[in-house]
Amino acid sequence: MRMLITYGNMFLLQLVSVFLVLALFSCSPWTVWSSSYCNGMNFKEVRPHSVSITEFGAVGDGVTLNTKAFQNAIFYLNSFADKGGAKLFVPAGRWLTGSFDLISHLTLWLDNDAVILGSTNSEDWPLVEPLPSYGRGRELPGERHKSLIYGRNLTDVVITGNNGTVDGQGSIWWDKFRNKTLDYTRPHLVELMNSTGVLISNVTFLNSPFWTIHPVYCSHVRIHNVTVIAPHGSPNTDGINPDSSDNVCIEDCYISTGDDLISIKSGWDGYGIAFGRPSRNINIRGLIGKTTSAGIAIGSEMSGGVSEVHAEDIYIFDSHTAIRIKTSPGRGGYVRNVYVSNVILANVDIAIRFTGLYGEHPDENYDPAALPVIERITIKDVIGEKVKRAGLIQGIKDDTFVDICLSNITLNVTSKLPWNCSYVKGYSALVSPEACEPLNERISPDHCSDCCYLPNQITSLVNQNWGAWV
């Protein structure tokens, strides 16, 4: 009987130990922010004034160029900006157009069978100045092509509908990239700059020439129930790239592209450092997708800093990498307070990959001594089948990535060397296959400040005598 009680106590102690380890990671401060903030984001989708693109001479035959019709319609609707805003309705049809600019207090509404087609003539995508946080076009020095749907210095702008489509017809741009015949950096499909109060929802985006949805220098952005698709061989067709933006919610999206599904950025080397606008408070929930690159990436352009990133309920399949951080000497900046949880992987080459020697530089003026700070990265509650490698986590010599925390991760790994780690330091618990030696120190309550915050009741419990408590 005494032996049974002893075994019972030991079992309960083990349960308590597991409970405490898991509780350590159930208290992320960003969980509270993400749930309350995203649910509280309100946008004005109903407008008192509405017009159809057909009222301005547009023809939805997929052949007639409708750039002027879009421009004239939006110019007309600008007169209603101070009267509650307006809606531009795009009915069923194939509406060929070049680049056009949105305005504040506007809803661009696409009907179910509406398709906005990007022109295959590069002259219909005019040039704009490079982003100051990049100092040049991302691919080539100098100017860059304007996105198909573009806006800057806007307030209260909505792109939505009944699951209509925006098709960038990007293959001509992909061919130019492969053949090295680009004159300027390729355009995005949607780019909004210096804007506040942005909603993009219930729309399918296809075949972007370059990054698909690019909010840059924006605040209070919600991207919800969006589908992004491009062929897996298409170069740099990232899905959604928040860039030097804050308070961004990306929810319930399906993305299948030729590059990162979501990539968080904040400027490039010295230009990003000087511009100094970080990406922060980025919330990702309900992402499903596949890619030849990464599911969720940070960088490599992160020189303005990235922090308070919360991603949960993620399903990545048939992909190269699930979670990735990319940086290099010369980037400067930081990535900190990243919290990823509830991830399912299927047929993924690498589950977790941090790379400290990644990417080129905009010019020869970068400072190689500008080293990035990578710290407080927590990844928990991950399961995976048909995963080749658990992790490649490689920091930078004399610039160790610290406080990398892994918990409750179970991966069915096919490689005989599941982990490869260098210049990193952190903690792990309940990780299978067992984490690499630099991350093998067991997580304990003493490491709470390194990984996340303990709630008061857990802190109180830890301070008690475990045996007495049992």
UniProtKB/TrEMBL annotation:
Signal sequence region: 1-34
GO molecular function, one term: polygalacturonase activity
Gene Ontology biological process terms, A to Z: carbohydrate metabolic process
Keywords: Cell wall, Glycosidase, Hydrolase, Secreted, Signal
Protein's cellular compartments: Secreted, Cell wall
Main location: secreted
InterPro entries reported for this sequence: GH28_Enzymes, Glyco_hydro_28, PbH1, Pectin_lyas_fold, Pectin_lyase_fold/virulence
PANTHER family associated with the record: PECTATE LYASE SUPERFAMILY PROTEIN DOMAIN-CONTAINING PROTEIN, PECTIN LYASE-RELATED
Family membership noted in the UniProt record: Belongs to the glycosyl hydrolase 28 family.
Name recorded for this polypeptide: Polygalacturonase
Organism: Vigna mungo (Black gram)
